[in-house]
Write a structure and sequence with these properties.
alpha+beta; Jelly Rolls; six-stranded antiparallel beta sheet; RmlC-like_jellyroll; cNMP-bd_dom; Fumarate/nitrate reduction transcriptional regulator; cNMP-bd_dom_sf
């Protein structure tokens, strides 16, 4: 879904506000495999995914681990870099051709200061991200691999067709062999 259509489904904006937002966000197309930011980056852009699938990832002892998947109608931001001026531990990679809308955080902040409804919406999106990450932490601590797999399929329908099994297994916190066993039992 296009950014403005998404926003208008969630907040009231007049035509001048829509124009300002449309001008501020640049439209960018990225090929599958593109790394938008490497782990430990100071990335300052905010992205809205109009089309495509991305992942946040990190490296642990030389191993690539998928932290989270982001599909259409989601925002991505490097929280640590933007809010705390420290390296963001997660990289961002495009898993299938993607159409993104991008804006530097400083310009987003200016927009939010000039458009009150957009400022409130930014807070709602931030709280949704915090909730999402909290759910992921709880799942890794208290759910079985099978439960995490089922929840992933509910949250990301079609993910098995869009992401590699290696990325899916690392997201679930299991090996590819365990993933294969879980899939065979379903």
């Amino acid at each position: 879904m296009e950014l403005l259509s998404y926003l208008l489904r969630n907040i009231k904006l007049n035509s001048a506000e829509c124009d300002a937002i449309g001008r501020a966000f640049s439209k960018q197309i990225f090929a599958k495999g593109t790394v938008l930011a490497h782990p430990d980056n100071h990335h300052q852009n905010v992205y809205f995914i109009e089309k495509g699938l991305l992942r946040a990832f990190y490296n642990l002892d030389g191993k690539d681990i998928t932290h989270y998947f982001f599909d259409e109608n989601n925002f991505l931001i490097s929280f640590e870099s933007v809010f705390f001026d420290r390296p963001h531990p997660y990289g961002k990679q495009v898993l299938e051709e993607a159409c993104l809308r991008a804006i530097p955080y400083s310009k987003l902040d200016e927009l939010c200061n000039s458009i009150p409804a957009f400022k409130n919406f930014r807070l709602q999106v931030s709280l949704q991200v915090i909730s999402m990450l909290s759910e992921k932490t709880l799942a890794l601590k208290f759910q079985t691999a099978e439960q995490r797999y089922k929840n992933m399929l509910d949250k990301f329908p079609g993910i098995l067709l869009r992401a590699s099994l290696g990325h899916i297994a690392s997201y679930l916190g299991i090996t590819q062999q365990t993933l294969s066993v879980i899939r065979a039992c379903r």
